[in-house]
Specification:
Organism: Pseudothauera rhizosphaerae
Largest sheet: none
CATH class: Mainly Alpha
Protein name: Flagellar protein FliT
Subcellular location: Cytoplasm, Cytosol
Order of helices and strands: HHH
Number of strands: 0
Keywords: Bacterial flagellum biogenesis, Cell projection, Chaperone, Cilium, Cytoplasm, Flagellum
Radius of gyration: 21 Å
CATH topology: Methane Monooxygenase Hydroxylase, Chain G, domain 1
CATH architecture: Up-down Bundle
Shape: elongated
GO biological process, one term: bacterial-type flagellum organization
C-alpha cells in the first residue's frame, strides 16, 4: 500500500524524471527509474489496509497518484519515440553488419 510519505517521494522522483525526459536526458532518466522502483517496492511490502487513512488524507493521496499518472504518461510520450528511433537505428546497423558479413563491404 502506498503511504503518503512514499507517494510524496515518488512524486518528486517522477517530476525529476519528467524534466529529464523533456530534455532528452536519458542518462538522468535511467538514474531515476531505479529510485522510483525502490520506493514502489518498499510499499509493496506494506499489507493493504495496514494503515487506514482519514478521508482527507486519502483524497490527498489520490490526487498525488493522479499527478504521478499524468507525469508517467508525459515521460512515456517523450521516451517511447526516442526508444523507437534508437531501435530503428540499431536494427539498421545490425542489418548493415549482416550484409557486410554475407557480401563484403559495399561501396568504394
Amino acid at each position: 500500500m502506498l503511504t503518503p510519505q512514499n507517494a510524496a517521494r515518488l512524486l518528486t522522483i517522477y517530476e525529476d524524471m519528467a524534466v529529464a525526459a523533456r530534455h532528452n536526458d536519458w542518462d538522468r532518466l535511467a538514474e531515476l527509474e531505479p529510485q522510483a522502483a525502490a520506493v514502489r517496492a518498499a510499499d509493496d511490502s506494506t499489507p493493504p489496509g495496514a494503515a487506514a487513512l482519514p478521508e482527507d488524507s486519502a483524497r490527498a493521496l489520490a490526487a498525488v497518484i493522479r499527478r504521478i499518472q499524468v507525469l508517467d504518461a508525459e515521460i512515456r510520450s517523450h521516451a517511447e519515440p526516442a526508444r523507437d528511433a534508437a531501435r530503428k537505428l540499431l536494427s539498421g546497423a545490425v542489418r548493415d553488419n549482416n550484409v557486410r558479413k554475407a557480401y563484403g563491404a559495399v561501396g568504394p
